[in-house]
Amino acid sequence: MRPLDGRRIWFVGIGGAGLSGYAIVAKAWGAEVGGWDKVETPYLLHVREAGIPVEIQAEPLTPPDWEVVVSTAFAERVPGLSRAEFLAELVSLQRSIVVAGAHGKTTTAAMIAFVLDGLGLDPGFLIGAEVPQLGGNARAGSGWLVVEGDESDRTVFSLPAEIAVITNVDLDHHTTFASTAELEAEFDRWAATVPRVIRGEDVGAPPDLELSLAGDHNRANAALALAALEAAGAPRADAVRVLREFRGAGRRLEPRGEAGGVSVIDDYGHHPSEVAATISAARSLLDGDGRLLVLFQPHLYSRTIHLARELAEALAAADVACVTEIYAAREEPVDGVSGKLIVDRLVEVRPGMPVGWAPALDDAAALVAERAQAGDLVLTVGAGDVDRAVPLILDRLQS
């Protein structure tokens, strides 16, 4: 299958979770591919392994006579196809299962791709995180193309799926949607264009389903994955057998190591619902009198403004919490808005709880490591670069 033969495609922002995968599939489908990014990222390892040249420099680079596909992060600076437009083209070229929704879409998509792969059905996939058991975040295949759709910039609503999975609808991107009602309307409009739609609200988690992953939220993800696999023609019993072996996607309750009798787990959760589910699942992993210590990095000023109290209520389920400064990502700083908003709300929600405010990630790592004792579990949580704290914590625990 080489539907992109003869095309030369340059990806601006190729180091991101999305465009890195698109580039890998485009190369496998016959295109000549290259790209630029301003910094090295873990995803570029797989891009280079696919034989794709990458330019790293401060300012965007676009060679003449190439088609240009631009990450949302650079769309205002560089002309070209948006990631939504290019992804819609990829999805149109192969029978596709698109997984969307506010929470759980990465794990659900990874589960579907993992089972299809385990059943020998040669899926392609484009997923917004590393899936270690599948060797990365993207692959071309001759079977179904499994795609994680993103509503943050409305990308998902242009994808021509054959099967759509909508995990849940929850307002998470306050600069994109004015209300939950608007978001629900967009999902309904998109669903009306898809032949087969599976919604989380209609699928219950089987009580006897055994998984390698902790947490009720992962049981819900698994139920959706199994429903999608049945819709794709996979026998349920075979799908259940393979799914039991799935060990998760990167930064989703990912075990990162142990030192001094303290385990460290990393998770991408950034919305209150996700943080609450992650803390609940992590607590189920504790033995005896061990405590749960959470290092949380807020993501986006807009999300922090709207959800500071809800984030505090989720963090209150930990035994100890430390909050860092906001990871800005694509947003500019907002006067008077910082991670301290969450700290202040947390003190109100749970008086007496040990709570730390450490704007710098290095200081937060040190604070959490100093508090941790043998038998405890440390959970780093956030959609930014909070995972940088993991080796810092482990180093301090060993000293």
Main structural class:
alpha/beta
**Number of alpha- plus pi-helical segments:** 12
Into which percent range does the helicity of residues fall? 25-40%
Strand order of the largest sheet: 8-7-9-6-10-11
- Measured by DSSP, the beta-strand proportion falls in 15-25%
What does this structure look like?
This protein is of the alpha/beta class. The chain has three domains: 8-82, Rossmann fold (3-Layer(aba) Sandwich); 94-243, Mur-like, catalytic domain (UDP-N-acetylmuramoyl-L-alanine:D-glutamate ligase, 3-Layer(aba) Sandwich), CATH 3.40.1190; 254-398, Protein-Tyrosine Phosphatase, Chain A. The chain contains twelve helices and 17 strands. The strands form three sheets. A six-stranded mixed beta sheet has the order 8-7-9-6-10-11, sandwiched between helices. A six-stranded mixed beta sheet has the order 12-13-17-14-15-16, with helices on both faces. A five-stranded parallel beta sheet has the order 3-2-1-4-5. Helix 4 packs across helix 6 (216-231).
Write a short abstract of this structure.
The protein is α/β, with parallel strands linked by helices and 399 residues long. It is built from 12 helices and 17 strands.
Task: Please render the helix and strand layout as text.
Blueprint: E1 8-12, H1 17-28, E2 32-37, H2 44-49, E3 54-56, E4 67-70, E5 81-82, H3 83-92, E6 96-100, H4 105-118, E7 124-131, E8 136-139, E9 145-148, E10 163-166, H5 180-191, E11 196-199, H6 216-231, H7 236-243, E12 254-259, E13 262-267, H8 272-283, E14 292-296, H9 301-315, E15 320-323, H10 340-349, E16 355-357, H11 361-371, E17 377-381, H12 389-398
Helix pairs in contact: 1-3, 4-6, 4-7, 6-7, 8-9, 9-10, 11-12
